[in-house]
Design brief:
Elements lengths: L14 H22 L4 H29 L3 H27 L1 H27 L14
The structure holds fe (ii) ion (2 copies).
Length: about 140
């Protein structure tokens, strides 16, 4: 994975969510930088833990915003399944990282790239048109 730089094409036009996506991207870039600089397992684990923590919060907020925006229930359901799968994947990688650092590191880089780039561009972007009338989102959950 190379560093992923934020650009307007990632925007879902909701500043709250865009800022979270930016933050997730930043954490993924930190992970990449730490790997390049051979920072060691402890350090990588810390980044991974903050990624998991932040991801769960982001998914909660994003699912809420989809509901508030009136995104069709069937699409919310499939988006939620997608999130659940991503969480399972990242926990799996977290486990794998404890046992076999090298193999998992490569998988993690692919995962971060896929997730950040593909999920935002292909899945998150779908709810964007429904958010037009939503202003000033604040998380309830
Ligand atoms: Fe999403
Ligand atoms: Fe997202």
């Amino acid at each position: 994975m190379t560093y992923v730089v934020w650009s307007d094409m990632f925007s879902v036009r909701r500043p709250y969510i865009d800022n979270q996506h930016k933050k997730l991207l930043e954490i993924a870039n930190d992970f990449h930088a730490a790997l390049k600089d051979n920072k060691g397992k402890e350090f990588l684990f810390e980044i991974l833990n903050s990624l998991i923590h932040y991801t769960e919060e982001h998914f909660r907020n994003e699912e809420e915003i989809m509901e508030m925006a009136g995104y069709p229930a069937v699409d919310i359901e499939s988006h939620k399944k997608n999130h659940e799968q991503l969480v399972r994947d990242i926990f799996g990688l977290h486990q794998g990282f404890m046992h076999s650092e090298e193999k998992t590191t490569h998988e993690l880089e692919i995962f971060l790239n896929n997730w950040l780039v593909q999920h935002i561009l292909l899945e998150d972007k779908k709810y964007e048109p429904y958010c037009e009338n939503l202003t000033d989102y604040r998380p309830r959950k």
